[in-house]
Fold each of these.
Amino acid sequence: MIVAFSVSPLGVGEDVGEYVADAVRVVRESGLPNRTDAMFTSIEGEWDEVMDVVKRAVAAVEERAGRVSLVLKADIRQGVTDGLTSKVDTVERYLAEDRD
């Protein structure tokens, strides 16, 4: 499964990068395949391990902010591995065909 999530502290002002870094640090230390962009962090693995990482990432932000917002989207598909890379590769292949 792939989970894309965004965790943000509320009530701490506009500069939330330091708080978000706490969450991303948890994800990266998990050892699961992951990517972070300007809006979301995506993580790939089995249900229990991915949801545990999301829970710990939220807790890391919650330690320093009393209120936390979580947005989560999941792609639950049995038997698929390396979806973080293969899905993007498929789109890139179609885009390359457009140039030919």
Amino acid sequence: MHSLNELATALEQPSKPFSQWQPQHCGELPIIINQQGEWLYGGSKITRIAMVKLFASVLCKEQDTFYLKTPIEKIAITVHDAPFIIVNWRFEMTEQGQVLCCVDNLQRTWLVTCEQPLVVQDYQGNDVPYLQLPYGCSARVSRSVFYQWAEIAQADKQGYFIQSAGQRFYLNV
């Protein structure tokens, strides 16, 4: 059995030192991440997953703008909702208890923890959970995953919740 820190390290994507990078804003690229989490360039879908993963690895949000940020460039792009979608999940047992592992549409795994909490936000008039990710990014929980969670959710006076890493994360406002 692993500790929560060991599991997080095993799943961790190579992290970029965004706080150390202070490039000048270089304009905008015609890249759009639509509401389905698809990346488009000039209206055409980017189909090379390796290219999308590369762009995603340098994506950050500063103030209310999303950027592709490198040590020498910071280029704005358009994101219609959240840049990523949670499409699958599983529980992993750790020394700290059961941890919810969420898989996004780029097949990256994220842990639901105090550092990466689930928060409920409005999406098209409905309250929907989002997973808060590093560098100001987030991933909207897909409808199918939300319904699966609804089946296993526990309830208390505050509402329905999923427990992960010893914390309760509510699925309603």
Amino acid sequence: MAGAADEVVDVLIVDDQRPFRTVARTVVGMVGGWRVAAEAETGEQALVEAERVHPAVVLMDINLPGISGIEATRRILASHPAAVVVLLSTYALDDLPGDAAQCGAVAYINKEDLTPARLRALRSVEQAG
């Protein structure tokens, strides 16, 4: 992620639901220094966009058409290990697929809880790592 306060954090939003991508774009826009670099509707499209824009942060839906968000996360991190991937879903934490914890994502955020404050907290996670 951005090392200095004045650097821009490029974000890739991956979700198959246009209304949620709109909400996520609005939330990202409320975080100073963050911008949406690209959006994707499928796991496969997420891989293409990650190669194109080299995002610092990926907001990744778990359930996607084609390859899952969990598999897309693994593949993106294999190519871009410095990226910070956050899994998103409507699942309760206890109901996440078992392989969600092993895919390399730094956090899980329920879609209802996606706020600018939660995104700002990701900077602390990345700087601590």
